[in-house]
Amino acid sequence: LSGLDPAQPYFQGTPVGVRLDKSDAEFVDVIHTDSAPTIPYLGFGMSIAIGHLDFYPNGGEQMPGCGKNPVSQIVDIDGIWEGTRDFVACNHLRSYKYYSDSIMHPDGFLGYACASYDVFETENCFPCPHEGCPNMGHFADKFKGKIKNNFVKLYLNTGEAKDFALWRYKVTVTLSGNSKVKGYVNLALYGSGGNTRQHQIFKGTLQPDNIYTSFIDAEVNIGTVTKVKFLWNNNWLNPTFPKLGAATITVQSGENG
C-alpha cells in the first residue's frame, strides 16, 4: 500500500483507525512532499512517519520547481489544467509525479535512512549500508524483507522537473597550486552510463593542498567512472594569473559505496 502525501488536515494526530497506518497492509510505503504545517504554510500532507518506509524527498516540505512565478507555473508544458493544479497544490501533487517517474527508473530515487534532512546533507548517512537503500515509489517493496526498525525515515533529492530521478555521489578534491585564490570549483562526471552537467562543489577561498568534499546529485546514473572534468575560475580578474589543479579526485557512489 503506497501513500502519496497522505492528507494532514483532520488526519494528523488522529488514532490509527482513522488515518493511514502501517497496520493497514503487509507493507506500507509513504511519500511525503507537502508536510509543512497547514497553518501558516498551507501544507496539505502529513509530516509524521506512519508506514514501514517513509520517504521525505527534498526534506518533505518544499519541492524543487514548485517556487516558480504564477504565470510560468500555470502556463505549464503539460497544459493549462495541469499548470493550474500545480499552482494550487504543487508540492502535494509532486508525490504522484515522483511515483509515476519511478516506474521508468527502477534504479533511481534511492532513499537514505537518516535522522533528518539536515543530517542527510552531511556525510553521516552516506553511502547506503550493506543491505542497500530502498527505492522511493513503485519499487519500494523490493526492500520489504530488510526492514529492521519500527519506523524508517528516508531522505533524497529530486530534480525540478521530469525526469525527477537523481543519483547521489560524494566527490573529494585535493587542490594543487602555488597560491590561494578566491573563486569556485566545478566538476562533471563521465561514466559508462552517461555524463553529468557541471556541478559546483565549492565557492570561496581555494587553498592549495586543501581537501574539499561535496555531494553531487547527478541527473544520470553514470555507472563506472571513466573520467572527471575539473574546472575552476576566479571571481575576478587576477593580474598574477594564478594556476590551480587537482592533485586527486575521489568519486564515491551512494548506491554501492
TrEMBL record:
It comes from the Eukaryota. Belongs to the AB hydrolase superfamily. Lipase family. It catalyses: long chain 1,2-diacyl-3-O-beta-D-galactosyl-sn-glycerol + H2O = long chain acyl-3-O-beta-D-galactosyl-sn-glycerol + a fatty acid + H(+); 1,2,3-tripropanoylglycerol + H2O = dipropanoylglycerol + propanoate + H(+); 1-(9Z-octadecenoyl)-glycerol + H2O = glycerol + (9Z)-octadecenoate + H(+); 1,2-didecanoylglycerol + H2O = decanoylglycerol + decanoate + H(+). It is found in: Cell projection, Neuron projection; Secreted; Zymogen granule membrane. Keywords: Cell projection, Cytoplasmic vesicle, Disulfide bond, Hydrolase, Lipid degradation, Lipid metabolism, Secreted. One of its GO terms (molecular function) is lipoprotein lipase activity. One of its GO terms (cellular component) is extracellular space. The keyword Disulfide bond applies. It comes from Grus americana. Its main location: other. GO terms for biological process: lipid catabolic process. This is Pancreatic lipase-related protein 2. InterPro entries: AB_hydrolase_fold, Lipase, PLAT/LH2_dom, PLAT/LH2_dom_sf, TAG_lipase. It is a peripheral membrane protein. Residues 167-257 form the PLAT domain. Gene3D superfamilies: alpha/beta hydrolase, PLAT/LH2 domain. Pathway: Glycolipid metabolism; Glycerolipid metabolism; triacylglycerol degradation. Its EC number is 3.1.1.26.
